[in-house]
UniProtKB/TrEMBL annotation:
Gene3D superfamilies in alphabetical order: Homeodomain-like (1.10.10.60), Tetracycline Repressor, domain 2 (1.10.357.10)
GO MF entries: DNA binding
Pfam families from the UniProt entry: TetR_N
Organism of origin: Pseudoduganella armeniaca
Keyword Amino-acid biosynthesis assigned: no
Domain of life: Bacteria
PROSITE patterns: HTH_TETR_2
Domain HTH tetR-type: 9-69
DNA-binding region residue numbers: 32-51
Name of protein: TetR family transcriptional regulator
InterPro entries given in the database record: Homeodomain-like_sf, HTH_TetR, Tet_transcr_reg_TetR-rel_C_sf
Alphabetical UniProt keywords: DNA-binding, Transcription, Transcription regulation
Length: 191
């Protein structure tokens, strides 16, 4: 039975969304095409009708996942974003949390298309955070503060997730980094 163009687009979007979740949860190497397609409710053979390669899907899934984080950050000031980002809830939500925190280490070893998607997504996230605040003053210094806060927050999530969930160190990392980032932003007048 032939699928309509609209249904084919919906199926592709569903595969991308499923991949975005599975890749964040298991990493790029932890998800095979057959497992991915089964999780999306399709056969393995249908993959290559929709995507040229797993790398192409990785780039699309990264864009999808990063867009979700950007959407959540829009309208939030940087301090509220940091509070939510460096929470235990976000840390424990590996499959639905920030793609940048979940997959940056993996992305560094991927083809240029995947890395370019991450670079564009990070730019979008910085723009959303800066736009929410209406950054004033020196644009270069303001961008550096937001970039520092974002990189610090991503690193804190990565380190906290590397610890056992119940380890006191996992929560200590989040608290110490959250306090330091917020103090830095407050001192700089960014919040």
């Amino acid at each position: 039975m032939k699928v309509s163009k609209a249904q084919a687009q919906a199926n592709r979007a569903h595969v991308v969304a499923t991949a975005a979740t599975l890749f964040r949860e298991r990493g790029y190497d932890g998800v095979g095409v057959a497992d991915l397609m089964a999780a999306a409710g399709f056969t393995h053979g249908g993959f290559y009708k929709q995507f040229r390669s797993k790398s192409d899907l990785m780039a699309e899934a990264a864009a999808c996942g990063i867009a979700q984080t950007v959407a959540l950050s829009e309208g939030a000031d940087i301090e509220r974003f940091i509070q939510a980002y460096l929470s235990r809830e976000h840390r424990d939500a590996r499959a639905t949390g920030c793609t940048v925190a979940a997959l940056s280490g993996d992305a560094a070893r991927q083809p240029d298309a995947v890395r370019a998607t991450f670079a564009a997504g990070i730019e979008d996230l910085l723009a959303a955070l800066g736009a929410a605040k209406g950054a004033q003053g020196d644009a270069v210094a303001s961008r550096a503060r937001y970039l520092d806060a974002l990189a610090h927050a991503v690193g804190a999530i990565v380190m906290s997730r590397a610890c056992p969930d119940d380890a006191p160190l996992a929560d200590e990392i989040l608290q110490a980094c959250r306090d330091r980032i917020l103090a830095s932003l407050h001192d700089a007048g960014a919040g």
